[in-house]
Design a protein that fits this description.
Structural class: alpha+beta
Radius of gyration: 24 Å
Oligomer: single chain
Number of strands: 25
Distance between the termini: 50 Å
Number of helices: 19
Amino acid sequence: MLALKYFNKNYKMRNFANVILITLSTFMNAQNTPELFQNLPFGSIKPSGWLKAQMQKDVDGYLGNLDKSVPDLINDPIYGTGRLHKNSELKDLGNLKAGDAAGSDQYKWWNSETQSNWWDAYIRNVFLLNDAAGIKKVEMYIKQILATQDEDGYLGIYDKELRYNFNSENGELWAKATLYRGLLAYYEFTKDEKVFLAIKKAVENVMQNYPINASSPFSSGEKFNGGVSHGLTFTDVLDRMYFLTGDKKYVAYALFLYQDFSNTYQSEEDIQLKNILNPAYKLKSHGVHTFEHMRPLIVATYAAGNEEFKTALDIYLKRIEQVITISGGAIGDEWIAGRTADATHTGYEYCSLQELLDSYSLLLQKTGSAKYGDAIEKTFYNAAQGARDPIHSCIAYLKTDNSFEMMGTKNGEVEADRKQTRYKYSPAHQDVAVCCNPNAGRISPYFVQNSWMKENENTLVATLLLPNILETTIGDNKISIETETEYPYSNYFNFKIKLEKPALLTIKIRKPNWVKSIDTPENFVVDNEYIVIKREFKSIDYIRINLMSEVEIKKDNNKNTYFTYGPLIYAKPIDSEVIKGKTYLSNFSDFNYKPKAQVKYSAVNNASAVLVSGMIETKLKNEQTNNIEKVQLIPMGRTILRQVTFE
């Protein structure tokens, strides 16, 4: 085994790759680290209440119409008749490229990311909503995409002269990862074996052409390689195949991919093992890479089952905590660049919000640690909701916690090397890249999917709190649990339970870290931050529970004041003037927001704060007049322009 102290002294050693490959077979034969919770198949949990209504609004709005807003991107036959070859020309994506660090080659594969992430979002939303028209559209797509699969199993974007044969930037594994994730969701919901066999054959094709221990999928020269880096998330597919089949070869291959990624040249990637184990290293990568790469490291750690990887994961997670804003915003606007989170000066990309949420969900499943549920809810209910336009069907590509204007630039800051347009609301953001809108469509179904898990055959765990309906089986007993709640805007829950026959069950409900007391008629214990209820449940039964909270006045890392109640962060809304921009379709447009007045507030020592009708009432100092004013704060997820922290 490789000693951690050896890495700390020699993280730049030239023979690093050879040492890793020698030990890989040992890692593959190691005892996998046990996983505490088990996922449920996609579709076992459906949204209800306000969240279902919001998802339907997205399908009726920007998400469901993205193929009409940017048809050349979504309908590009890049997986079929338009596969890339040696003479393929750069695609015109309709975006402004001035100041981008990315090499031009990525524009060849970019449409695969756009359309496959969009289809992943669309598939998951329409099935969870039982949207008949959407489901019919999905079934036509599945038929068309499977028809592009070659006889040997290849399902991807390159013709035979290029595939698996690169020494520069490429999207081979990335195009597959984005596509296969959506196909897996379709299979899990429909149980269509034809689709699963196609996925299995496609994954086998990858493993045969990039043989484990005898190839280097991530060798791509020494230039910028964004598509190659994204491709490490092919481990998402492998981990899900392991979930579906129980075959360890998939996670062994995921471990191999992570090792190869660590051993090869990558353009400033935080997840490389040598960087993690360098105590002087600070996160600096393109933010979305940093947060999505948490998952390959997690899967590799559980596959390897050794202390070195566990130590590396612990180090990485501690670094991640330093680049998360108080709202759960995963900074990267678009590079982390050695910075720490700041409410005004570090922005976060919507892509990074989805990737962070998905990575924390994997940690929650494998570790069972309630703190990751807290982190997921913080991101979803604050940063993610706060980057949606509450009026129009569109989202912000980049957003800050303190959002004093949304006129294209970060709170008015000017970047010398580019015309920044990311700080606005758009149904597509084509002038930058159509990546954040598909990911904004993915975030809700992924959030819903991870809200219930199993601990064992008699224990169900409410890992995330939200209005939903669970349908699963315990043994041979069909069970349905409807979570009736207005959470996070109310902390009261009514779990309506229906069983095919009465049974002794254990139901665990995650106790969020803000809970002061628990009001319920149930007999319960709290174990590792889970409320545990074990009893005989009737065919129709209920669990009623109220999680009691208080208004809290907190300090961020810069010693600035902010206010919370339950899972929500509250903000002083800023009145704004809306400015309509580019129109994509007759009813889908870009929007900028300009403040009507440049007024900021600061904290008042010893000021009280109380919750009144869903708002926090407190006193703040108007910095323009120096007067102390009584103000009302609202959940930041319901704001556009806002001030969240107060000096």
